[in-house]
Design a protein that fits this description.
- 38% of the residues lie in helices and 15% in strands.
- It is α/β, with parallel strands linked by helices.
- The chain folds into 3 domains: 166 residues, Rossmann fold, CATH 3.40.50; 171 residues, 3-Layer(aba) Sandwich (Rossmann fold), CATH 3.40.50.1220; 170 residues, Thiamin diphosphate (ThDP)-binding fold, Pyr/PP domains (Rossmann fold), CATH 3.40.50.970.
- The strands form 4 sheets. A 6-stranded parallel β-sheet has the order 3-2-4-5-7-6, sandwiched between helices. A 6-stranded parallel β-sheet has the order 15-14-16-17-19-18, sandwiched between helices.
- Helix 13 links the parallel strand 11 and strand 12.
- Helix 16 packs across helix 17 and helix 16 runs parallel beside helix 23.
């Protein structure tokens, strides 16, 4: 008979069997038995300085690799500190398993020290969650958690484990299969619907691919590329999908939405067929939904049936894995290729010409100044250095939009950003997780001066683990996006947005044992970034940019997506006094 092992040992056996190489966490009283086992095992534990950042780091690990990220926290405040990261992963469909400790099962409900209803609190913050109060349920639950997190539409799963389960003794029975009768994943798509989609694509005059983060989650970039080249269809890629097509691909227009390009938004409004692939018709793309893509029939492919018809009713709904559906769609289109008639061919040529004209009329281009560093100049320099090959993690706000507009990504899983939830403080810990997963890769954390100050404690984690993350602070002295809205729509009544008291970064980085520098003049910027990249280990670069620059294009709230503000308002004419 196999030897008895503790629940903590059993948990680690499960993690090893699931291929977990690294976890991000912060220990506490209830999870000490787990950490006692980790002392002897090969799973790397990265000690963060705040549990929220453990979840963000696990996301960075998962987003950059496609593997399940793992984070761990103790009961009560440790578990509640994970919640923002869990909701972030839920909104962006990122596979994360969170392990939390809970008080002894006999104490649940007694207001014991560091007790919290983690199971209840995280019910709506996760794809699924578990409370394990019996040792014999532990192994099955942990393996189910990894299966649920990674299958279908990915997402976060939390496993809350009581202290007596950690300390109990039992036999580990390897789980050989997962059987969840109520959990069905539809992957292949309906053949008839795929054929209908192929027919619509062949007949349309102004087709447009609208692809999102589902392409990344499905590892379907190759299938997307094959499809757009076969159909010769222009493509807009959402914030969450950047990198799904190489930025220099001739069929790629740019990002659509509130701060998307003029060409992308105009293409959405004028297409006659919208091929929505792994995307959810988010309000930041559609703006006023009733006015979105008014002339288009819609093909919508998504693995989550709840997304089909949620915001826009499709003409051809297809529930399935977008990569598999695209592969079958390409096969059907190749089996019976149809040459378009001259009228259709002429319409397609006119469509492409129109899109190229839109791109020329209002291109997404960096702005330069000899007097001050423009934020767009900063992004252009990072783009030059990265060459479309670096991992770029951002925080949330203006810098996020400029980075999305101006930095190229030649591959998927290079762009890590908080899309759905928009979590400040995401950039540094997610870059940390990505660097752990990709030790030889150049990783930038591009953050604002607001979000950076929410994540300063992780400088200790970066330093103590020797992670060569290049942290670039776009410092405009404001909560820039809020300031932009207050300026444009609230009569410039600036309230609660000025960030005074930013630290001396040379001293701050030095306090953690690495280098930092502040840059204030455009002529210094390129050299400073090159120095940061050349320097072994982490580097903190504080770039002081034009303080009141705003992100354009911009679709104001309540407007249709083509009703863009393309630049700052013209100053009011100065009245000439009468003679």
């Amino acid at each position: 008979m196999a030897n008895l092992i503790s629940g903590a040992q059993m948990l680690v056996e499960c993690l090893v069997k699931e291929g977990v190489e690294c976890m991000f966490g912060y220990p506490g009283g209830v999870t000490i038995p787990l950490y006692d086992v980790l002392y002897d095992r090969q799973i790397r534990h990265v000690l963060v300085r705040h549990e929220e950042n453990a979840a963000f780091a696990a996301e960075g690990y998962a987003r950059s690799t496609g593997k399940v990220g793992v984070c761990c926290a103790t009961s009560g405040p440790g578990a509640t500190n994970l919640v923002t990261g869990l909701v972030d992963a839920l909104m962006d469909s990122i596979p994360v398993v969170a392990i939390t400790g809970q008080v002894n099962s006999k104490l649940i409900g007694s207001d014991a020290f560091q007790e919290g209803d983690t199971f209840g609190i995280t019910r709506s913050a996760t794809k699924h969650n578990y409370l394990v109060k019996r040792l014999e349920d532990l192994a099955q639950t942990v393996h189910e958690a990894f299966y649920v997190a990674a299958s279908g539409r990915p997402g976060p799963v939390l496993v809350d484990i009581t202290k007596d389960v950690f300390q109990g003794q039992g036999h580990y029975q390897p789980v050989t299969s997962i059987h969840l009768p109520g959990f069905k994943v539809f992957t292949e798509g309906h053949t008839g619907q795929i054929r209908r989609a192929a027919q619509l694509i062949e007949e349309s005059e102004r087709p447009l691919v609208y692809a999102g983060g589902g392409i990344i989650a499905s590892n379907a970039s190759a299938q997307l590329r094959e499809f757009v080249e076969l159909a010769d269809t222009p493509a807009v890629i959402t914030l969450m999908g950047l990198g799904a097509l190489p930025s220099n691909h001739p069929n790629f227009i740019s990002m659509p939405g509130m701060h998307g390009s003029y060409a992308s938004n105009m293409a959405l409004q004028n297409c006659d067929l919208l091929i929505a692939l792994g995307t959810r018709f988010d309000d930041r793309v559609t703006s006023r939904l009733a006015a979105f893509a008014p002339h288009a029939k819609v093909i919508h492919v998504d693995i989550d049936p709840a997304e089909i018809g949620k915001n826009r009713a499709p003409d051809v709904p297809i529930v399935g894995d977008v990569g598999r559906v695209l592969a079958r769609l390409v096969k059907i289109m190749n089996e019976a290729p149809r040459q378009p008639g001259e009228k259709l061919a002429a319409a397609r040529r006119a469509w492409w010409k129109q899109i190229r004209d839109w791109k020329r009329e209002h291109p997404l281009e960096p702005i330069f100044s000899t007097n001050e560093i423009k934020p767009q100049h900063l992004m252009a320099e990072i783009d030059r250095i990265s060459g479309g090959e670096a991992i770029v993690a951002t925080d949330v706000g203006q810098h996020q939009m400029w980075a999305a507009q101006l930095i190229r990504f030649n591959h998927p899983r290079l762009w890590l950003t908080s899309g759905g939830l928009g979590s400040m403080g995401f950039g540094v810990p997610s870059a940390m997780g990505a660097q752990v997963a990709n030790p030889g890769k150049l990783v930038f954390a591009i953050v604002g001066d607001g979000g950076f100050q929410m994540s300063i404690p992780e400088l200790a984690t970066i330093a103590s683990n020797g992670l060569p993350v290049k942290i670039v602070v776009m410092n405009n002295g404001y909560l820039g996006m809020v300031r932009q809205w207050q300026t444009l729509f609230y009569n410039n009544r600036l309230c609660g947005v000025e960030l005074a008291g930013f630290p001396d970064v040379e001293k701050l980085a030095g306090a953690y044992g690495f280098e930092g520098r502040t840059v204030e003049h455009p002529s210094e910027l390129a050299g400073a970034l090159e120095t940061a990249v050349r320097t072994p280990g982490p580097y903190l670069l504080n770039v002081k940019v034009a303080p009141t620059e705003s992100v354009y294009p911009m679709v104001p709230a309540g407007s249709a997506i083509h009703e863009m503000v393309l630049g700052p308002p013209e100053p009011a004419p100065v009245p000439v006094p009468a003679k």
